Amino acid sequence: MSTIDTLKDIEELQQRCEQYDGISLKLNWDMLRLPPTAGGAEWIVTYEDEQLVGFLGLYGFGSDMEICGMVRPGYRRRGIFTSLWIGAQTVIKRNNVATLLLNAPASSVSATGYLKKLPLSFDHSEYQMKWDGTSAQFASLEASSAPVVLRPAREDEAPILVELDCGGFDMTQEEASEVYEQQKIDTMQEHIIIEMDGLPAGKMRLWTEDNETWIYGFTVDKKLRGLGIGRSALLQTIERERRNYNGINLEVALDNPNALKLYESCGFVILNKQDYFRYNV
Q: Does the pTM of the predicted model rise above 0.90?
């Protein structure tokens, strides 16, 4: 079976599980479509009678790894996920993972039940948010205290993107550089520089597929926060994606109330909540 066929089966299984359980799974499709050698995800699958019944995705981010999986309704409680988890140990060891996180929708009863069996501790939660024009009550771009311009990042500006990631997401130089090298291979995403007065003030990464755009890695230089730069950049991005008839999505950690407040004030609403658990080895 080809990789394309397997990806189609994974997508079908995701839709089936989400409809049955009333949840939203975070499968990071931007990474699933890339080979592991190009910074993509690795996966383990189980088929029965030529039907995909189990999936486990392993997503590397520098020395960290996230795992998300699913089992087809009607095939659960048969040890399928346990077999997938056992198979994942080889991948985990091979990648010398420093921090291993398992994520699951907060409302998933089946995931919660299984995760209780593993040596896990709660790490953090994220909201998945989507822009909703009907509820948007946001200020005009003119309210920004300084002129803000968004433009594609040039290849020679990689050090700027890495430095902003270090400051915005508490990453080491090595971690941020490795993640950037993986991300730049994906032609479906854009690295955006946010400028104020002609100088880099922040960055974001946009990934679009099937008329849905996701905003990732959105950060403003710590020294320039509080000047309306993030709000202006976000509103400009919303306007651009609206003109392209794209939905706009993002994720925010629950322990980042300032960002959550900004996103809600710009018209984003919470759709789902993902819980992350640290695996204690």
A: no
